[in-house]
Amino acid sequence: MIIILLGPPGAGKGTQTAALAKRYKLTPISTGDIFRANLNDRTPLGLEAQNYMSQGLLVPDDLTVRLVDDRLAQPDALGGCLLDGFPRTVFQAEELEKVLAKTGRKVDRCLLLDIPEKELMARLTGRRVCRSCSSVWHLNFYPPPADLICPLCGGEIYQRADDEEVAASNRLKVYLAQTQPLAEWYEKKGLLTSVAALGSPKEVEMAIEKALG
Ligand code: AMP
User: Nearest 5°: CA angle at 35, between 191 and 105?
Assistant: First the structure.
């Protein structure tokens, strides 16, 4: 089973991906996490991606598609995957179909986390994440421990550079211009399920489970 989690930055894709992957035993694949891990390790891919990520722009399609092609061919991705943050353009969605077709697979469902635009800036700028396990915190809604040490893994809790005001605002613009059209693209294919994503993480998780049947 291949499920895509679509939604604007700040909608809670990362949080829901972690919960759903566990519940449905799917391999979570987050292109943002892969880019950030590469950046932490100072790989050529990470350093190239950083130029785009720090400004809130999309990493070029060719680089991103190649990365996902490799990732989806790994043994743990052959059973079923939850894609978080990919595809983000119609071109990437078309390429994903070709990549999956190589192993006789296809996208089963695209879940859209639907949330009012005005909620997103506060969610993004208050967000803090663990550098090691990517768990998510929020200064107002779900504060991290005062020492900023992740209680789940001991990693450092920090603010992503692209969650700062200017980059975050760019990411929202990029989403509206380049990624939002994907909802209609998957709708036309009969694969889109929209879920209201304004409640608590648990409430949204339940709504997704209901929507998935
Ligand atoms: P995310 O963690 O999903 O918010 O992604 C963080 C950043 O990584 C994005 O703002 C982009 O710069 C880059 N990125 C992640 N996924 C993609 C993608 N599918 N296409 C292009 N850039 C991406």
Answer: 30
Q: Is 171 in the pocket of ligand 1 (CB under 6 A)?
A: yes
CATH number given to 2-116+169-212: 3.40.50.300
CB-based burial label for 114 (10 Å; 0-12, 13-18, 19+): middle
Residues 58 and 88 sit within 8 Å (Cβ to Cβ): yes
Rounded to the nearest angstrom, the gap between the alpha carbon of residue 192 and the centroid of all alpha carbons in its chain is 17
Residues annotated as part of the active site: 13, 88, 127, 160, 171
Question: Residues near 15 by Cβ (< 8 Å), separated by ≥ 6?
Answer: 136, 201
The alpha carbon of 170 is separated from its chain's Cα centroid by a whole number of angstroms, namely 16
Question: Is 17's C-beta closer than 6 angstroms to any atom of ligand 1?
Answer: no
Domains of the chain by residue range: 2-116+169-212
Nearest CA to ligand 1 atom 2: 32
**pLDDT tens digit sequence for 41-78:** 999 999 999 999 999 999 999 999 999 999 999 999 99
- Which of 33, 35, 71, 134 is the pocket-test mutation for ligand 1 (most atoms within 8 Å of CB)? 35
Q: Is the pTM of this model over 0.90?
A: yes
**Unique residue bearing structure tokens 């450092």:** 156
For ligand 1, say whether the CB of 12 is within 6 Å of any of its atoms.
no
Does the beta carbon of 175 lie inside 6 Å of ligand 1?
no
